[in-house]
Amino acid sequence: MRYWKGSIALSSTRDYPLLRYVFQLGFITHNQLFELLKLDYCAASRNAFNNRVLRLVTHGLLSRQERLSASRDVVYSLSTSGALALGVNGNPNHSIVNRASNINNRQLHHSLDLNEIHLALKRSGSLVYWMPETEVRSRTDLTPYGYCKYYDAVVVVRLGGQDCKFALEYERTPKAARHYAAIRDRIEQETAIAHFLYLVPSHDFMWFIAEKLSQCRRAVHIGLFHDFLEQTLALPVRRSGSPTMLTLAFVLSPGKEVQHSGELFSGIAV
After folding, report:
1. What is the pLDDT of residue 177?
2. Architecture (CATH level 2) of domain 15-103
3. Would you say 202 and 120 are in contact if contact means Cβ atoms under 8 Å apart?
4. Nearest Cα to 187, choosing from 223, 151, 152?
5. For the chain, what are the domain ranges?
6. Distance between CA 90 and CA 68 in Å, rounded?
7. What is the value of pTM for the model shown?
């Protein structure tokens, strides 16, 4: 098969999975991208991966920024051409595509930290499915099977031979207090998810979230971001409105029941 000069032939098993990850996650470092693809058996050789990424950057499918991450690793985002190659450019829910030209530092580091959470779960071997915020938004806005909130991710893990689902929120900085009343209302209205996990950077922030969501009629669990990266499902979590600390695995385990604010909630994952 012949191609126009300057065009690029994309591999369905190597290029498209790579572009799809960059699209879904918004911003991703070179090392994060390699490890995610390696864990998915879509990359093995580091040299081959480096050459593939360079080829995609050279042809304008990936945007590359230097020294945006704390590790000084290069950061990639999807270009307009990359979006066209994936067929996502026309969807208004995919405004994530052109963020490279107007990078918000807080948004950038939020995305990179979420990638570390994603990687920690994949390394643990417990991850069944990770639905990023782009998919959460699309499903919520375009189908009757959406969620009551744009969660950072909807996650399914395997525990005791059964799949357990939870909504993940990662907060690097606190919101204004008034926002948590609306968050509480949305969580209380949620019918598609039984478990809610907040990851935060400090004990003080954990106390803050627990207090702001203390009146929520659903059990919201809060844990420390850096501890999660090391312990994943063994992470100690605090329930909103309670000083009780349990492991995340215990909270998510099928058949567990949580008493909160006078109501009994089944721990069976949905």
Report:
1. 86
2. Orthogonal Bundle (1.10)
3. no
4. 151
5. 15-103, 115-266
6. 28
7. 0.87
